[in-house]
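Researcher: Quick sanity check before group meeting.
Model: Go ahead. Protein one:
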Amino acid sequence: MIIAGLVLAALAAVLHVYIFVLEVFLWTAPRGRKTFGTTEDEAQVTKSLAFNQGFYNLFLAIVTAVGIAVALASEHAAVGHALVFAGAGSMLAAALVLFLSAPDKRRAAVTQGTLPLLAVIALGVGLALA
């Protein structure tokens, strides 16, 4: 179950890297505007906010990936697990904030939060049973 949690966390990290690319590099492009439902003018006005948020998503992915690496390749697996919980837990918390604060963005919140939720559950259960 621990390995399943780490795999799910890795998938969540990959998703957040993809979101980073959308927010930092494609925000004003047709693909980015379509993904986030913004007009060309809205995308231009909010470009700096998206840039900042994109890096936030990248940093969560990095913390999670470092945690996975430490958990798998070190005698300090507990440190790695803590980093995975911090990264994936923050992804989940951000998705929950989006879900509760923007009813029109609930589908995006569920997309963004499902993998971290499953990762946290699987890792938690796996560690509890270990």
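Researcher: Fine. The other one?
Model: Protein two, sequence then structure:
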Amino acid sequence: MATQADYYEVLGAARGSSDAELKKAYRKKAMQYHPDRNPGDETAEQKFKEINEAYDVLKDPQKRAAYDQYGHAAFEGGMGGGGGAGFGGFGAGAGGLGDIFDQMFGDMMGGRRSGGGRRTGADIQVEVELTLTEAYSGVQKSIDVQTRVSCESCHGSGSADTSGSQTCATCHGAGKVRAQQGFFLVERPCPTCHGSGRTVRNPCKTCHGSGTEAKTKTLQVDIPAGVEDGTRIRMSGQGEAGGEGVPPGDLYIHVSVASHQIFQREGANVYCRVPLRMTQAALGTEIEVPVIDGTRSRVRIPAGTQTGETFRLRGKGFSVLRSTARGDMYIQVSVETPQHLSKRQKELLEEFEQEAGEDHAKASPENSGFFAKVRDFFDGR
């Protein structure tokens, strides 16, 4: 233990790191050196064990405090054999450190356990970007997934011949080993069988006994109509293969919906900003607007329409997932002030201004009302 590397250096974390920072550093290192990602690499396997040992100590506030004060000497006192009896209820299946490790680490790296305690292959997460119109109508997407599949050479058995597998001699089939560290009994996945409880007598040369090999798999994914940005879709059994007798993990598809140049979405409703010429808003008009489903709709704009007024088209929005309901489409009006006027246009506007005369308050009530309040403000001072 005297020559053992500093636990913080092993994780690549600073001594003052928070619990969240330690966990993040641990996950990054564990993913880098996990045996499933480095098959046959003994150096990576040893590094992986060191990472687990370091995190087992530093994630526990009491053990971390002892380590910060005394270093590795805080845990000297003999190392128990794998599978020996311990104290404090930390035995296999006792709901102790091993179970906590399974819940946190298994979900990240593979070897995940289902609700009934059954081991499965690793889950995979991919992101799919959709256009807004694809999210509206639903679409089938073809995605390429980097994964691990059942080894073709050994058909997933991990064995080069018919000798098959045998009970792991290190953990005696438990898939876990326990080690005494000072006053603590720490439980970890077995370094020999990586938690499976069995080892292959004559490992397959292609997969090195894991029963799986890396491969790019193409899948067809049905994205339902009305899906929202950030939605996660689960495809059961489409994750990484887990080897002989171990069911595959799941594939999780994270949906990202790109912005649109015309439409904006809020829940099931769609918004479209439509600029109107000043004359259209003043005199009233009828306009044709696009609808998210690819059709067009006509909207009547009454005379005197102001910027910010909204017109609703019922049932022209998105469908609501797992429901027959539909959202609406809202046309938001913006009255545009004319620019780059010709001489004649300026003359006409000046005539309009003069013609309004005393009727300004009637033609522009909001404008007149505001400046009336301004006069009252200054008069009051």
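Researcher: One line on it for the slide.
Model: The first strand starts at residue 112 and ends at 113.
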